[in-house]
Amino acid sequence: MNDLSNASSVQSHCYSCKPIPSQVLYVLVPLFFTGLAVSLFILIVVHNAFFFVSLLSLSALVAAFLIWNAVNWRRSRALFYYLRSFPDSDLRLARHGQFVKITGIVSCGNVSLESSYEKATRCIYTSTLLYEYRGLGSNAEMPCFRWRFSTDFYITDSKSGIRAMVKAGSGSRVIPLIIESRLVATTRKCRLLSSHFKKWLADRNISGQARLLCLEEGYVKEGSSIAVMGMLHKDNDVVMIIQPQELLSTGCLWRKLLLPVDIDGVILGVPEMVGPMANPPSSMY
Q: Are 183 and 155 in contact (CB under 8 A)?
């Protein structure tokens, strides 16, 4: 079993760097102030506002581009688009060491998982997030606790019918693109917790006092159809999908105005969906 909970986020666990390197900011900020000083000088001395207006317009475009990439990086949008656009591979034709995308039905290996709150059994990946709302208007989400686990499992290639083991267990780097469903959410008008939720909190030594909380959970059960991206490893009759030995990049997604993101783990996602959900949404209570 692979405990992914130690990472503060999926990105910090599996990505080598953010899409906007700090060196870029170190260059852009001095350039902006230099250009601002020159344009103000021209505006005051020559009474020509063209350079000043042009600088503000260009700066606004650059800032919007950087903010757009920062926001989408936090939401893993580049990886979702990359997963969706990457063609499915055929294990009969794929070579050893090739980076592949396999779509098919999953089955458990020697170890299976159980989801924390809904108690869904025979899972190959589980994720539970507990948030507490704080801040102005109670709109700020602060993750109180985060539990993410994955394990080795099998996937049957939908194209070739070949069964391959996916190394997502202990020691493997995994990038799960599984969006959790909201199961419990208290509001400002109703902060009372159900008895089941209180017991769940007590079992984890978490205070059950009335406050703004949100519980989200996601999992992939045996029999689900998912997409897996990783490096193909063939050893005689054994076929495995393992993490890449070198960093990979999504490349620049110009249609979405997204900068490249480096990846160094096995990607798990739901095929043909930008925002996948492996478990059906449940009602809030």
A: no
- Structural contact between residues 159 and 88, judged by C-beta atoms closer than 8 angstroms: yes
What tens-digit pLDDT sequence spans the chain (285 residues)? 777 766 544 444 344 346 666 777 778 888 888 888 888 888 888 888 888 898 889 989 988 988 888 887 777 778 888 888 888 888 888 899 899 999 999 999 899 999 988 899 999 999 988 887 765 544 555 557 888 899 999 999 988 889 999 999 888 889 888 888 888 777 666 767 778 888 888 888 887 676 778 888 989 999 999 999 999 998 888 899 999 888 888 878 888 888 888 888 899 988 754 333 445 444 333
Query: Phi-psi bin for 48: left (phi > 0), alpha (psi -120 to 50), beta?
Result: beta
Of 254, 248, 252, nearest to 19 (Cα)?
252
**DSSP character for 71?**
H
- Whole-structure pTM value: 0.75
CA 12, CA 82: separation in Å to the nearest integer? 19
Q: Are 229 and 99 in contact (CB under 8 A)?
A: yes
Please tell me the distance from the alpha carbon of residue 209 to that of residue 186, in angstroms, as a whole number: 12
DSSP 141-178: EEEEEEEEEE--EEEEETTT--EEEE--STT--EEEE-
Under 8 Å between Cβ of 267 and 13: no
**Helices 22-45, 50-74: inter-axial angle, 10-degree rounding:** 160
3-state secondary structure of 134: strand
